[in-house]
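Q: Okay, next protein. This is Universal stress protein from Elizabethkingia occulta. I've checked the sequence twice, so it should be correct. Can you predict the 3D structure?
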Amino acid sequence: MKTIVLPIDFSERSEYLIDEAVKFAKEVNAKISLIHVAPLDIGFAIGDMGFQYFPEIEKSEIKEELLQLNRLEQRIIAQDIDCDHLLKQGEASSIILEFAEEKNADYIVIGSHGRSGMYDVFIGSLTKSITKKSSIPVLVVPIHDAK
């Protein structure tokens, strides 16, 4: 069985990306390994006293993101596709590529835009970084065209 690594950012278009990854997984007889990379600065806020770290905010946010990953995993499993997930904090492209290598992934499926903003006009900066550095085939789903 093949393995697809599917980075998820919980943007509005994640549902569409999952649907496309599930279709592809069925076509190539693959399981899906979801990954979400949370930024290292989740618990930081800036205010009158400068930057402050609030560990309870970070813990709460990570807990919520794990719940979201669990829901997405169950949604994929309900469509008869094996699925697992991982949440890590750090620099997204490096972690995603390391995860794909660890999983011996056959493909990485990623959207052309996420919630990170408009880094590039046509392809998001994370997608650009992944496609430039990956030795694993990358399928880029054009999220901006999704309805």
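A: Here is a summary of the prediction. Strands lie at 2-7, 30-38, 44-47, 50-53, 83-89, 107-111, 138-141. The domain at 1-139 is CATH 3.40.50.620 (Rossmann fold).
Q: Noted. On to the next one.
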